[in-house]
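Lab manual, section 2.4: Encoding a predicted structure.

Procedure: take the sequence of the chain (1020 residues), apply the prediction step described in section 2.3, and record the output as structure tokens. A sample record is shown.
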Amino acid sequence: MRSFAIRVTRPCSLFVVGTLLSCVTAPNQRPPLRQSLRPAGWDKRRADTGSRYAVWAGKRAASTIRHQRYQPLAITARVLTKHQEKGALYARVQLSTKLSSLNGFSVSVVSPAHAVALPIGEQGDQLLLRFVNAPPAASKLSLVVYGLRLAARGTKGGAEGDKDAQYEEIPLHGEARLEGLGQAKGEGALAAAFFRAAAEKWRRGRLDPRGRTAFSAFASGRLSVWARELVNERLTSPGSRSMPMPQRRRRSRLGEMMALYTGLTSVEEALQTDRALFFRRDYKKGATVALASIKGVELPAHPWDSMIAELGEKKSLVIDPLAQHVPAEMAYLFAHDLRTLVRVQGELGGRFSELVQALEGRGGDHSFIKRYERQLAIRRSALAEKLGHIASKGVALITTDPLQREGSDMTLLFGLGNEMLLRAVLRKYAVEAKARRSDATTRTFKLAGHEVELLSTPDHDVHRYLMRLGSILVLSNSKFVLERLIAVKQKQATSLAESGDYRYMRARYPFSKDKEDAFAFMGDAFVAHVTGPRFKILQARRMEAKADLQAVGFAALLHGWLQGKAPKNTAELRARGYLAPQELHHADGAKISYTPQRGAHSSWGRAYQLTPLADLSLQDVTTTEEQAYQRFRDSYQRNWRGYIDPVALRIRAPRSGQLAFDGRMLPLNERSDYDHLLKMVGQTVARAPDLKSGLLFSFAVGKGATLRKVVDSAAMGALGSKKVRIGWLGDWVAVGASDRGGLYDLGATVADAPMPGSKGRGRMANLALVLARAPLFAEAHVVGHLALVGVLSALRAKLSETAPGMVTWKKGLPYREQAITEVHVRTGRELGGTLHYAVVKDVLTLSLDRGTMEERIDAHLDGAAHAKLVKPMQSTVRVRPWPKKSWLSRVLMLAAGRFAWKAEVRALEALTLLEACKQPWDNGSEPGRLRALGHLGWVPASVHGGKLTVNGDGIPHDSVWGDPYLRLPWSEQKAAMKNSPLRRVLGALQDLQLSLAFEGKGAHRGLHVRSRWFYRPSSK
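Recorded output:
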């Protein structure tokens, strides 16, 4: 994918600003009688000319099939030099074709022995090859090159190097037999050169130079060490003896690992860089500081009781029944029954998992929901379908650890209805778990007088505690959580029902079966827990333990990439130099084991399923850890002065395809980032404008908002007059796009798609054409018409002075007796575009598209622009695709496809690593899924629902998307993605609304958020 930039000079920028605002004329002027008026009920959909690109792409669908076929690439390959080392043959090859001229390429070697080919040199006309074991016969060696060549399109302006020219990618496929292997001269430095090139390849990202993964960070660092050691002649070959420990400056990651949000890809990559260079932190020897001596985050208590009283008599305090059993320091999700909980999770996870994967650029599925189901020996959907609300009176999900992907304590609470039926189903699932894992055992023990049943395997793949506690049945993977629940039962710990913050939120959101389907809460005690020294230091240690486990799995993958097979055990990895002896132990001395079927494992768990922090012990810490936590604590208290923010969220999921949230976070601390934002936009709450279909973003602007002063200062600077003020602006401003064909043209042009009839026009010229009819609009609430006219007059005079003759404005065809002004902009000899403007019911509306302008006039005149569903808030985002054949939905899918490219590349790259280990895997099989999780931490998967395979030449392929070097044209992707999960989610979206507002004063000052997601019933 290629990008472009627009350079704007200062006179031009002033010209554009003046053009946008000078198009306003007196709003009360009536049009001449000879101008015809369209009826009020006129349907503007019939006036939508549609998307020129979509129509052209549909007609070209049959002819673009040629893009799926590779064109032959003529190439010859001659071996220049070679070098034989123990177990490997290295060769330098001269090619007749410069691979640097290809836009993405892959080279593979077809031979009986496993081989890796790496391009080198600025011209890309040489390769470095590495063969495993004995030199293969020359007659059986051949190179296979896949790539794309950029070809200029059009008769004019299509010369190579023209930035504005349009290009098409021609897929190429070439084969060449290696010549001269037996006669090649010797070159002793080939091994070091090969590992140096391999390190650079992984440093850039093997298939995607725009992004790295944790594996690529590990591989590039380790290969760099090998190359450096070979150059220094300390090793004759990698693995000939134990890898030395390079001396380098100690770099602590504790500060990053103790941030509020950890487990991020950037932190994992940094840790793998440290591991790749054999850098470790040993906290076992230096643990001399008692944990109890470290002060945590100190924030004052809040007067919750008085705040509840200040809400007034109308606010009733009704608390759900399970809150009395839950410790106050836990995050809490309550639902009336298990069916509701499963439905809410299904609406979120089932619909948005592929979309989140695409936006994050992840190459696969972490499967953490399935992992917890497997660990707890439960099947949520089947249990909910069989029991529903019969076997339980309310169900809750609680945890002490928000890092769900890494591994957290997970506990289900069932309010008992039919205990016998519930236990019968759980016993059935236990039998299934034992059938799946023959080493699973069941035992019972007493915990504070309560009988507990434990179903577990040695590696905690299955680990479930079952306990009856009064009127609830507890299902958990953590013994610590059971102890805390018992402490609440014995009145030795505070419950949520007794905590002031939960009672306050329940006063704002009283428990009601009619008004809520689920309720989520994170309180003061939970935030204090996750910001405390024990949690943060253990969290940092666990991340390092995860990096240790990942390094062993990554070493196995690197072994497969270079050797063509998976290692049998850790002894083979050590013998070949892929791991140092100390890397098979954690910093606390715990041993790391490895199997090709499941990857690395230790007392910390697996890289994709770590031991919950709640079950880890911590008594003493190092001085470095103490200092790192103190820095975190000081930073937290600087940014969150005053009080910790509890969060409550009321959830409604009345039926399939509908989900609504209403949440509050308070109190907002003074002098925080929220306070600065509030000063910028002001405290005004306004009813945002609505739209029938399209995209809209609006926000209120208070009278004393800093934003007004900023705009005034900019206007006075541009016009050179202190009399120019923004006093005409009312309560809100908005920008948006109507759901019309021009929107898809704009999206396709930005995505660099070929446009019909371009005839050599460059991307900038095409962009100018589609902008001229783009259905974009901007609106503002007007309170002072005279002030607006004065400002526009000044702008118009300034424009006439700086750019005379370039802009002309006239009265356009009125619509429903509303005057519309047309402003025509000319650039050179061609018409640059037309801007339409009107003032309707104190709303200033501007648009480049006439049909969009008329849609907005209808909305304001008919009252649809201020629908009752749109609550008065400070900021609102609205996405409403047209019910049938929505252009907006197509644009969303086009944008998601661009994000999905990175995820697809990472999935295919991971697939090649797994296949190189000669461990066939199947996304649908349990052994294959566990192998991928054990080595990668996730399972490679296509966000488009395609099947991932590797062809005979070692090139990965997605049945929907194509391969990394041959992507299907968008018109064909759309047909292939008919049943894609990503397409179903975006294509079925009916209405999405997100609004927020700052509300309350003093201790009640907080953030109020509302959200609604509606999907069409036919979507899944």
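Check your result against the sample. The mean pLDDT is 77.
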